[in-house]
Amino acid sequence: MKPKFKNHKKLPLNHFILAIIITAGTALLCKPLANTQNYHVVSYILLFVVSILATFMGTGPVLLASSLGAVFWNFFFIPPHYTFKIEKTEDILIFGLFFIIALVNGVLTTRVRNQEKLVRDREKRTNALFQLTKELSKASGMEEVLTVAIREIKNHFQTDSFFILQDGENILTDSGRLQKEKKLTPAQYRVAEWVFKNGRTAEATGPNNETSFFLIYPLPGTRISPGVVAVASDEMLSGDQKSYWETFLVQISNALEREFLGEMAQRVRFLDESDRLYKTLFNSISHELRIPVATIMGAADSMLNSANSDNMQAALSNEIFTASLRLNRLIENLLNISRLESGHISARLDWYDVNDLVNKVTDDLADELKPFSLNVSVPDSVPLVKIDFGLMEQVLYNLLINSTQYAPPASEIELLVNHSNGKMVIDIKDKGPGFSENELKKVFQKFFRADESKTGGLGLGLSIAKGFVEAHGGSISIKNLERSGACVTVQIPTELPDMKNLQEQNDERQ
Asked: Which of 146, 194, 242, 294 could tie 237 with a disulfide, CB 3.0–4.6 Å?
């Protein structure tokens, strides 16, 4: 059996049989009135029965009932009985009127009923289209739109369907976008491709001409065609059903086109962003690598090709060492951002003195901090804190380097450490130009630099600091100071140490 669309227009044969039975039964029940002067009443009874039949049967059965009613009344009830001869003129007139009234009444009643049914069907279809539009408007993403479309086609047309969409380059795929398990055979794919290119409906058969038939319809689009839809049927629709189906497809196609264009726009934005990041990263790395490498090469060449004094040799060696540190810092930042993006960062917490952390970082940055006045404040009341020393060292290092890049020479940089409400709070303040409102929103993004014309680096320092702070379960924020400069605040949750337990742990380690 070939699958078909649901069809409401077929007229059941049993309606004709039922019309014959009801009309004949009514005549049989009225048989006792045949030999009386009340045989005219039978015509009214038969007329009433025809009117009743017209309320639930089609025109054909009603016409049959009207004709049979006239025949039965003439043959069984109008004298002389059991003949079609009518002797009285009034009976001839009544018979003619009965036949005409029965036909007109039956046809008109049927027509009114059909009009009423047509109005109900149109209202139902309008409501179905409204619900479809509503569901499609709420759907977000291609998969949700396809889920709604397949469900609504099943509900209103009683047939299975699957959608084959293009890949963005006007090439049709060979499987359903949502139903990955459904694949077209080579022959079906050729038909689907023809439908997609020509915008016309075609029929496709299953493998080896099996009974799996498909009607493949194009999905019309205003700017692009999303693809085609295959339905399990071999029967073309016509009339109102065809118009209803085409309107259904237009609504679905518009929603698919909307999502399709959205996916394409997102893909373009992603490619543009990737290209922008690639260019930024390439230019930044090229610039940052060129400076220390050129320094190392120049210093090494001077040492190899000239007889320099010990002081000159020491100065050149110091330049090589400084450039190497800068190169190492660049590589460390790239490795750290890679670790953050891969999710391989986890804090290994232990108890440390904040003074050790501050001293270690300020010693490593002694040369960078020379042009500035560094004011460090760590109150004696600050207890031991439970942190990952290596991660927090990198956080503090990046924040101080960032301040030296933006603060004017000979200005003051403040490093303040406090402990309150179960948190270690670090504030780093500088006298730099600060940030605009737009820059404050982007300052922790990768490769972002507030003023590329004045500072070096890749724009990764604050992004790495944010990742390491969050690995501690803490938070980092930045704000402009009232007069000038900016303040970065780091808050790390840490419990108060139990000195007795710490002493026992130290003894065990020793």
From this structure: 242
